[in-house]
């Protein structure tokens, strides 16, 4: 799941969710989450037909099932 989707699920802003992830780096190893590449983010944006104006400044993070479970304990 993407960080923005999880932020909605946990009723927090995406910025706050990512702050907590960055404050707890030992809880989120490589197999728990990863950051999308620019190409992946552009492909995702084109699949959902969203505008390239406005929106995010940073590439989104994607969380695995284990990452989502760990995120629930951090938030």
Q: Determine the fraction of residues in helical runs and give it as a percent range.
A: 40-55%
Largest sheet: 2 strands, antiparallel
| Radius of gyration over C-alpha positions, nearest whole angstrom | 12 Å
Our estimate of the beta-strand percent is 5-15%
How many beta strands in the DSSP annotation? 2
Descriptive report:
- A two-stranded antiparallel ribbon has the order 1-2.
- The mean pLDDT is 86.
- With 75 residues, the chain is mainly alpha-helical.
- It has one domain (3-74).
- 13% of the residues are buried.
- Helix 1 (3-9) crosses helix 2.
- It has 4 helices and 2 strands.
Question: What labels would you give this structure?
Answer:
75 residues; globular; mainly alpha; two-stranded antiparallel sheet; 49% helix; 2 strands
């Amino acid at each position: 799941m993407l960080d923005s989707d999880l932020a909605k699920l946990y009723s927090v802003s995406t910025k706050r969710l990512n702050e907590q992830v960055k404050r707890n780096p030992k809880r989120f190893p490589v197999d728990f989450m990863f950051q999308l590449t620019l190409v992946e983010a552009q492909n995702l944006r084109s699949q959902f037909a969203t505008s390239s104006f406005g929106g995010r400044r940073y590439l989104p993070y994607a969380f695995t099932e284990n990452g989502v479970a760990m995120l629930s304990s951090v938030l």
